[in-house]
Automatic annotation (TrEMBL):
UniProt protein name: TetR-family transcriptional regulator
InterPro entries listed in its UniProt record: DNA-bd_HTH_TetR-type_CS (IPR023772), Homeodomain-like_sf (IPR009057), HTH_TetR (IPR001647), Tet_transcr_reg_TetR-rel_C_sf (IPR036271), TetR_C (IPR011075)
Species for this entry: Streptomyces azureus
Entry keywords, A to Z: DNA-binding, Transcription, Transcription regulation
Molecular function terms, GO-annotated: DNA binding
Residue ranges: DNA binding: 64-83
Pfam family, one: TetR_C_13
Domain of life, per lineage: Bacteria
Residue ranges, annotated region (Disordered): 1-43
Residues of the HTH tetR-type domain: 41-101
Amino acid sequence: MHSMVNDDGATRGERHGTAQAERPGASTGKVKGRPRGRPRSFDRETALEKALLAFWEHGYEATSVSDLTRVMDIGAPSLYAAFGDKQSLFEEVVQVYGTRYGSFTDRALAEEPTARAAVERMLREAATAYTEPGHPHGCLVVHAAANCSTPEVEQSLRDRRNASIAAFESRIRADVAAGVLPPGTDAAALARHTGAMIQGMSQQARDGASREELEAVAEIAMSIWPRTGTHTG
């Protein structure tokens, strides 16, 4: 169930000293401001999805708080009250993106019997996911890092990309140990190649490559994989 949040920033304003709320009995000698109406409510999940699309389209650094409040259709105090600061909002966005749009990598690694089958499926599904209509092309985790000057955000995104490469390498090493891949397979290099392909496909999609063009790239990428060992893979 989606949660509804009041669009009322008085508490946040007082916390940050950006607004001075009137207190009972205070004598300021000033005319009172207009009465505050009933706080407007917004759907938190809908606002979060709009923020996700903004970060995905423009990247972390180029998306300002004013951009976010405009696309989310909420005030800045409400954004801070509901999501924390811009960095906290982005961290939540990345989590949602991984579940809603980027889960095909984890599914392929978990469900396919071999590293080769998992990577082949992942690249094929990336070609589709990165070019789907209705949302920005490419991968948010790759694109949002462009020109990022916030060290914590840059490091977090780098850690995510490196974690994927480590997962590829783990699966490849397991297949080498099981005889599915030849004993001389360079698992680290093959995993790094896979990471380069998925990241490159993301940028190609941003540059206008079609699903069919990316599928052709994926097919060529798989052609360099070593032949299977003693087991079928």
